[in-house]
Amino acid sequence: MQLFSSKERVGKSIGFVPTMGYLHQGHISLVQQSKKENDITIVSIFVNPTQFSPNEDLSKYPRDYDRDHQLLLDAGCDVLFYPDSEEIYPKDFQTFITVDEITQKLEGEFRPTHFRGVTTIVNILFNIVQPHKAYFGQKDAQQCAVISKMVDDLNMNLSIVVCPIVREDDGLAMSSRNVYLSPSERNDALVLSKALKEADSLIKKGERDSFRIKSEMISILKSVDTSEIDYAEIVDFKSFEKVSVLEEGKHYLLLIACRIGKTRLIDNQIISI
Ligand code: AMP
User: How many structural domains compose the chain?
Assistant: First the structure.
């Protein structure tokens, strides 16, 4: 990886991939997309304390700088930004960005301070990196919607690119948190992608009643003893409002947040009727 002076940036397009590290192919797919679309690709690794609540896993969040560094070299990343917590949040830090409505629902109900931390760090990173395009994963669907809303509302001068979910061969959505799963929990975790697949096939067969679709997802999630559901919902693709009947020509999201043992996993699928 190289250093670029501000002169060398002139006339070059900058793609930016913010991450919390412990990288997997999901992250690398964002780097690859950025490399296709930009002259310079910058990746940040920062486990952002403000998006974790006190009872969450900040201190034990998995970290492996050397492995991440090598994966990024192999992927052809140009610049790795790896700041300390004190650099980002000095002692007298006091400014936060909040997006209102869309952050109150679903993830926001279960993690009330999460999105405020996300929008704040994303702003700080955008201001430091000054990218033309920033790359996010559909895996965190509500995060993508919140960030897109913020960029839109504040007329921020960059584009958000949302990239598809990368899955393991058996369907489990890749996540840094999968490392917490024991071998039997890893197997149980397949209920998330299975529930989405079954719901999708019900919809393809013509089911439009969201209660029946949700019931199917819930019964699959409950089929393993280790699961504890936070939500299994069908929402409007843009507003994240819950819907009761699916309508032709509209786009929706099937969204799941479910604990498997102590590990909280999320997954989703886009539905177009
Ligand atoms: P994280 O390091 O978990 O904060 O994720 C950094 C970025 O990678 C976010 O935009 C995530 O949505 C994205 N990401 C994480 N997992 C996946 C995945 N399985 N497929 C695609 N993108 C992902």
Answer: 2
Q: Name which residue leads in pLDDT, 6 or 204.
A: 204
CB-ligand 1 contact for 103 (6 Å cutoff): no
The range of the structural domain enclosing residue 186 comes to: 176-272
CATH of the domain at 114: 3.40.50.620
The reply to whether 97 and 124 lie within a common domain is yes
Q: How far is the CA of 153 from the centre of ligand 1 (A)?
A: 23
Mean pLDDT for all residues in the chain: 96
Residue 144 within a domain: yes
Mean pLDDT of 32-36: 98
Q: Judge if 207 and 91 occupy the same domain.
A: no
Q: Which residue has the CA at smallest separation from atom 17 of ligand 1?
A: 26
CATH number of the domain enclosing 191: 3.30.1300.10
Q: In which band, very low, low, confident or very high, does the pLDDT at 153 lie, cut at 50, 70 and 90?
A: very high
> Does the Cβ of 216 fall within 6 Å of ligand 1?
no
* 114 annotated active-site: no
Q: Is the CB of 34 under 6 A from ligand 1?
A: no
User: DSSP letter string over the chain?
Assistant: -----HHHHTT--EEEEEE-SS--HHHHHHHHHHHHH-SEEEEEE---GGGS-TTSSTTTS---HHHHHHHHHHHT-SEEE---HHHHS-TT--------GGGTSTHHHHSTTHHHHHHHHHHHHHHHH--SEEEEEGGGHHHHHHHHHHHHHTT-SSEEEEEPPPB-TTSPBP-GGGGG--HHHHHHTHHHHHHHHHHHHHHHTT--BHHHHHHHHHHHHTTSTTEEEEEEEEEETTT--B-SB--TT-EEEEEEEEEETTEEEEEEEEEE-
Q: How far is the CA of 197 from the centre of ligand 1 (A)?
A: 20
